[in-house]
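anyone seen this seq b4? input:
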Amino acid sequence: MPAKVKKTIFLLVYFISPIIASIIYWIEEPFTYSEPYDLTHRIGSVLGIISFIWMCFNIIIMIKLKTIESTFSLHWLNSFHMHMATSALILGSIHYPLLRIGGELDTIQTRSGNFSWASFVILMILAIIFMSNSLVTKVGKLRVHAFNKKFKYSANKVLHNLLMVSVTMVFVHTLVSFTSTVSIIMRGVYFFFFGVTFIGWFYHKILRKLRVNKDPYIYRKASWDDVSSEITSEVDKQWAIHLIWLNPSLYPCLQCGICTTECPISKVTNGSYNPRRNLLISLLGYKDLLLEGDSLMVWGCTDCNTCEEVCPQHIELTDLFSTLKNQSIDLGKGPDYIVEQAKTIFSSAKAISSQPAIERRRAELGLPSVSEPNINEIQTLFKNLGLEDKLKE
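predicted toks r here
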């Protein structure tokens, strides 16, 4: 089946299903309130139904069905998941006050709904802090502390498990609603969507683990993307924490491998240079493996920013690789060509010295002569950075 057809079917199911459920509710609603409160009550209930179904579908998106993952990019799925979860939370927030206008709710209805809504809000806040880079400049210290306490991917899995608990609470809330208590059809609708969601979640969390290794993103890795056989050095936890402190965006890495798959240097070297592996090694704290190993591991990056452009988590990978290059220089491990280029810049303030042929060609094209840089300024900068001594070593 063509990808476009799959996408169309997926989106139709996603958006038409709550409409069908809402129509069934509108027909099955047994109570009539005085106008205009009857219309307000029905609209509020419809918003609650849409919110519940979208939350169920968001869990189905998260269980990484191969059909969905092969049709949509991870970047699109993450973005769609975030926006639709936010939309569902907004609809759920509007649902409650509309129902309270002109009508009273049972205590169990009110409490089950309030607890469910509060749990979704808390999980949304935690997801923004720990699973996206939306507030990276604001949560740097918090991420360092969380990383230090090993609050990472395993804890993020707990957050998603709690989302299933929240959806279960909403399911209970739907079963005690006025319409559900008198309409077996509406109870069937709620059971259907919750049942499909629970089966999918159970498959992903329990059954799927029985047939794949512990890395949940194995299907997205490039064929050469493996690090398990290389780790022999000791862990430098403080080094890893320092990297998170310098670049908090590293924290929510999913290890999906898209950066490696799209990296032009990885393609040319068949994975000898591997952005995902470098980030994984950094987060695990294997400093020696990265900085004392083959210089290509650190210096293969050409600062093209392709990895950042394709990263679904918006991780600032180029900044990490620049930090690693600086640390490599501090250890005296920089490649010879880097040192030679630095010496050229120190002596002429240019990476490529001026050449008569270039000046002659510029004159033929009517271009102005290249202005001479301030060599003293560049040399002073090198001295202040302590690079002059390193170039003499």
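Residues 123 and 163 are 7 Å apart (CA to CA). The radius of gyration is 28 Å. kinda curious what u guys think
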